[in-house]
Amino acid sequence: MGKLTEDFESYRTRMNDRIMESANTNIKRFFALDATTYADGALDVKTKEMLGLVASTVLRCDDCIKYHLGKCYEAGVGHDEMNEVFMIANLVGGSIVIPHYRRAVEYWDELNEA
């Protein structure tokens, strides 16, 4: 794992743990809803993570993009599939997502170096 991925995962884990220390029932339910939504169902995990990545890119959330890139990597998304995901995100989101696309490609490359 490279520095980008290590830093992101470490921070995310640490802060999620901190949030859960004092989270009320509704926050805990929201986190659980997020986790269960991406489980296998009518759509498989791989497809759901690619959808999440497109939405995160269009919404320009770098943390969400990194999270879904990691999940896409774990789900076995290949290079050609990832290029199509990025193409859809850029088409839907427009040129304003290009900076996020650049950072996403950098993060994806680091995931694939491991």
What does this structure look like?
The protein is mainly α and 114 residues long. The protein is built from six helices and no strands. The protein has helices at 3-22, 25-37, 45-58, 62-74, 79-93, 98-113. The longest helix has 20 residues, at 3-22. The chain is globular. The N and C termini lie close together (5 Å).
Summarize the structure.
The chain has 114 residues and is an all-alpha fold. 80% of the residues lie in helices and 0% in strands.
What is the general shape? globular
Question: Helical residue percent?
Answer: over 70%
What's the average pLDDT? 96
Rounded to the nearest angstrom, the radius of gyration is 15 Å
- What's the order of the H and E elements? HHHHHH
Count helical runs: 6
Beta-strand segment tally: 0
C-alpha end-to-end distance: 5 Å
Question: What percentage of amino acids are in beta strands?
Answer: under 5%
Main sheet attributes: strand count, strand direction, barrel closure: none
Structural class: mainly alpha
Low-confidence stretches: none
Oligomer: single chain
What's the layout of helices and strands?
Blueprint: H1 3-22, H2 25-37, H3 45-58, H4 62-74, H5 79-93, H6 98-113
Helix pairs in contact: 3-4, 3-5, 4-6
Task: List the main descriptive attributes of the protein structure presented here.
mainly alpha; 114 residues
